[in-house]
Amino acid sequence: MYQTIRYEKSDKIGVLTISRPAALNALNSLEIAELAQVMTEIEQDADLGCLIITGDGKAFVAGADISEMSSMTLSEGRDFGRRGSAVMRRIEKLEIPTIAAVNGFALGGGCELAMSCDIILASEKAKFGQPEVGLGITPGFSGTQRLPRRVGAAKAKELIFSGKMVKAEEAKEMGLVNAVYAPEALMEAAMEMAKSFVKNAPIAVKYSKACIDRGLQMDIDGAIALENELFAMCFATADQKEGMAAFLEKRAAAFENK
Ligand code: CO8
Q1: Is 124 a catalytic residue?
Q2: Of all protein residues, whose CA lies closest to atom 40 belonging to ligand 1?
Q3: Residue 86's pLDDT is what?
Q4: Percent of the chain, pLDDT > 70?
């Protein structure tokens, strides 16, 4: 049983809710440890097809916990940063698609958590920012790396150097957010998107994610070779046979994740 998060799963879709609303879901050591724990459960669930991450109350996550960080020494700060970054990297490295449903403030560690997901959907009430320099620290859960990869170095520098918050629409314009919804429509939109992913051949979806994520770290020839290899491996799956047979027989495919 978790104290700071909830995890529910139905029909191949997992919903992970960060839940410490009295502190706007700010990430403390317990939350980071519980996130690491639930990630083990999620990583081992071969039936899971998509993960949605959201927050309880008026925040998605308002950052790392400032009261806990306020008295940290150099080595404690290094360790805290490592633990936070490690769990976000585990989210990013999940083979299945991930969606951040950002219901409110996504600041500092919260923006970093959202960016560890493949897709960010936002409520009209959401606000994004990396306000760390105003607290005398740098972004420490990989924000200096993921924000420029998402929005380009110049825009990331503007946001990180100023620490300013941007509204959901502006975050969408800069490419951080895929789409913006009325607050009451956000979770339904995230579920609809998740359903549109899990109805497809799971191995083909996972291979597509691997091609994109790993390919972006490679030179173009190596990346195309990777795509060719994973494309070829699809032909060794039962779901490729089923998907194409279903098309030719004009019926819906019944994929088995095989
Ligand atoms: N940490 C701890 N507590 C927090 C945090 C936080 N990040 N954010 C909000 N809270 C608490 C408040 O202290 C308050 O508690 P209390 O009721 O006991 O006083 C409660 O949540 C509600 O917050 P507010 O009353 O401030 O709510 P408002 O609606 O007035 O304001 C804001 C909302 C604008 C989001 C405001 O709370 C705020 O500015 N919060 C801090 C945002 C911030 O600076 N986040 C970045 C933190 S640094 C970070 O994330 C670094 C990540 C990498 C760490 C690496 C470590 C080495």
Answers
A1: no
A2: 62
A3: 98
A4: 100
